[in-house]
Amino acid sequence: MQTELLPDFLHLYHSFGNRSAALLRLLQHFDADPTVIRKSSPAALRGIGLAPKAIARARQRHDRQVKADLAWAQADNNHLLCYDDDSYPALLRQIPDFPVLLYASGDIELLRAPQIAIVGSRLCTPGGARTAFDFAAQLAAAGLVVTSGMALGIDGEAHSGALQAGGRTLAVTATGIDLVYPGRHHKLAAQIRQQGLIVSEFPLGTSAQRPNFPQRNRIISGLALGVLVVEAAQRSGSLITARLAAEQGREVFAIPGSIHNPQTRGCHDLIRDGATLVEGPGDITRELTQLASFVIGENCEVASVDSIEVDPAHRRLLDSIGYDPVNCDILVRRSGLTIDQLSSMLLVLELNDLIQSAPGGCFVRI
To answer: Are 23 and 12 in contact (CB under 8 A)?
Structure first.
């Protein structure tokens, strides 16, 4: 949207709130010119069929909120993306109820890249947390942006796995973008802003409210080529995201689990309903490789997980690991790496199925 039109658009945005479909129809009627709407007389607005309440809404002023929005957007890497901007994600615009405005903080180029959404239970098991972390790391290494909702549990593990692997991740929040929810994710949010992107459709200062979470979920699925559900109970917000993904024409993937684990029964229900059963990240990359270029309409590359090569530094560490269990202390002495460097590199080797964990904190070569 042209810069000079943005203040009037923001007044309308704050007036209509969640009624984005009604606002969009109004904008389309006036050739996407919010200033014309704001300057129209009540009689002109009545002439197109607006009720008195809608007319009053269209003429309301929100000087404080608009001033705050414009000031926020002046900070480095902060962006206000209107539905008709070139930077607005084309895939998201295809869903029926796309948001007319996105607040975005970080690298907005991620909106053009192929994305995989990873969602699941906030009360995940340790095994589920590890699975989400590992899948996110490997899918990020394959060139996919890992998208999630920055919630506790599976969401947080997915973001962390992508960051740990040096990949890219995108968080869609259910609060104003200037707030962090849950509070314990302040550090994670800062990392995502620096190495990825955070987006929200909610005005600045919007607190965490129950209805906002399912509303947010349509954006998570709408941005992505597909949604992977790692763990989900039978009544779970993650299943809402999966249902929305199916309605939006996205791929739905689910990881099966123990029949005794209540946190995997939602995944089993998804598989019964036609979701793709996933045993490894390669199941996802193979499915999305052709879809990425077809849907986004660009030369989007999603690497095969099986084809990822080990660089020389990781190869030297691999050569330090034999076929007998060896612990980290010995590997530090053999390799000369710090424990932090070692942990990151061991993760990469394990994700590429070159080593595996052994009892007592040891590793063995496969």
So the answer is: yes
Q: What is the DSSP string of 230-253?
A: -S--SS-HHHHHHHHHHHTT-EEE
Name the least confident of 108-117, 195-204, 333-342: 333-342
What is the reported pTM? 0.81
Structure tokens at 230: 């790692």
Q: Are 147 and 116 in contact (CB under 8 A)?
A: yes
State whether 48 and 193 are in the same domain: no
Torsion sign (Cα): 79, 82, 88, 92? positive
Band of residue 49 on the pLDDT scale cut at 50, 70, 90: confident
Query: What six digits make up the tokens of 360?
Result: 């007592």
Q: Which two tokens stand for residue 103?
A: 């607040």
Is residue 132 located within the same domain as residue 264?
yes
Q: Which domain holds residue 334?
A: 309-365
Distance CA 168, CA 107 (A): 10
